[in-house]
Amino acid sequence: MRHYNKHQPLFAVILIFASLLQGCNESASDVSTATVDYNDGAIWVTRTPLPTSRWGLTSCASNDKLYVFGGADHETVNEEFDPATNQWTTKAPLPTPHRYGATCSVINNQIYLIGGYDTLDNVDVYDPASDSWSSATPMPTPRHNLTTSAANGKIYAIGGRDNTTNTLDTVEEYDPTTDSWATKTAMPVSHHSPTSATVNGKIYVIGGYNNAGFSNLVYEYDPSSDIWTTKAFMPTQRTYHTSSVINGKIYSIGGASSNDAIPTVEEYDPSTNSWASKSDMPTAREVHAASTFHNVIFVFGGRESLTYTSTLQSVESYAPVND
Questions:
Q1: How far is the CA of 197 from the CAs of 6, 89, 147, 207, 211, in angstroms?
Q2: How many CA atoms lie within 13 A of 38 on its CB side?
Q3: Which listed CATH number (3.40.50.1820, 2.120.10.80, 2.60.120.10, 2.40.330.10) goes with 45-322?
C-alpha cells in the first residue's frame, strides 16, 4: 500500500503511546474507533484496486465490510471489500440491470439500492449476511443521479433527474417497517447529482448541479419538522462528488467543477456551520463512490473527466485524524 503522509513521526509516537495505554487499562474492543488510526499514520493510502474499473457506481458499508454496486458498463456488478484484509470478493449480482447513477442507504445492516439509470423506480434490498436480494416497494418518482440518506430509521430520496433529464427538487421518505413511501417538502432548489450525509438526525445536502450550473449550495433538512434550512456554502462549486461523515464532520471529496475531475477535499462542521480545506486526494476523480470504515473514508473508482474517458480502477483511503 502506498502512503501519503505529513505527520508520520508524530503519529508513530501517538500510536505507540495509545498501544501502551490499551495494554494497561482496557481490551482492544473497548478502544474508541475515533482514537484508532486505520490508515497507519497516513493521510491518504492507496489500496487494492477494484476488480472492475467503473464510474457511476455507488457504495455502502455494512458489518465492517464495504459493498460497491453497479456502474456504467458493469451495471449488475456487486463486489465486497474487506478493509481488514484489503481484499475483494465477488457477491450476488444486482437483480436490476442498467444500474448506474443509483444510490444506496443502510437500515439494520440491510442495504437499500434505489433508483438509477435508465430512470428507475426500483428498490432492491441486499442482505450481506445471506448474500441475497429482495425487492421493496418502488419509489414513487423514477429517477437517477439522486442522493439518499438514512435518518431515524427511514430513508430520504432527494433530487435527481427524470426521464426527460429535468432536474428535480423531489423528496420522498421510505419507511422499511411498513415498506411504504411518503412525499415530503421539496428541496429549495432543484438539483441532480448532489451528495447528502446525516449528522445528529439531520440531513445535509451538498452541491450538485442545478439550472445555474455547478452548485456549492448546502441545505440542512430536518426530518422531524420537514423543514429545509440554507447553510454555509461549500467553498468549491461541484457535482459528481461524495460526502462522508467521520466524528460528526462531513468530508466532500472530488467531483467535477468543469470538464475535468478535481482532487479537492473540504470538511464541513455542522456544529459551527463552517468549512475547512483539507489535503487533496492523490487521484482526481468524479462519479466515484465512497464508504466509511471506522474513522477512514474509502474512495472507489470513478473517472478523470466528463468526456467519459479514463475510467478508474483505483481505491484510496483518507484518514481525517491524520490531516
A1: 28, 27, 9, 12, 23
A2: 24
A3: 2.120.10.80
Give the CA count within 13 Å in the CB-facing half-sphere of 281.
31
3-state SS class at 21: helix
Residues in the chain: 323
Q: Find cell 505507540 and name the residue.
A: 16
pLDDT of residue 168: 97
- pLDDT over 90 percentage in the chain: 81
Positive or negative, the CA dihedral 170, 175, 181, 182 is: negative
- Could you tell me the pTM of the whole model? 0.89
Give the CA diameter of the chain: 63
User: 3-state class of 281 per DSSP?
Assistant: coil
Contact 179, 160 (CB under 8 A): no
Give the C-alpha separation, 71 to 232, whole Å. 32
Cα 185 to Cα 75: distance, rounded to the nearest angstrom: 31
Q: How far is CA 215 from CA 56, 209, 304, in A?
A: 19, 5, 19
CB 195 within 8 A of CB 208: yes
Distance between CA atoms of residues 281 and 304, nearest Å: 13
Q: How far is CA 235 from CA 251, 255, 267, in A?
A: 12, 13, 10
pLDDT one-digit tens code per residue, 202-228: 999 999 999 999 999 999 999 999 999
Of 100, 91, 112, 97, the closest CA to residue 58 belongs to 100
275 burial level (CB within 10 Å; 0-12, 13-18, 19+): buried
Q: Which grid coordinates are listed for 231?
A: 447553510
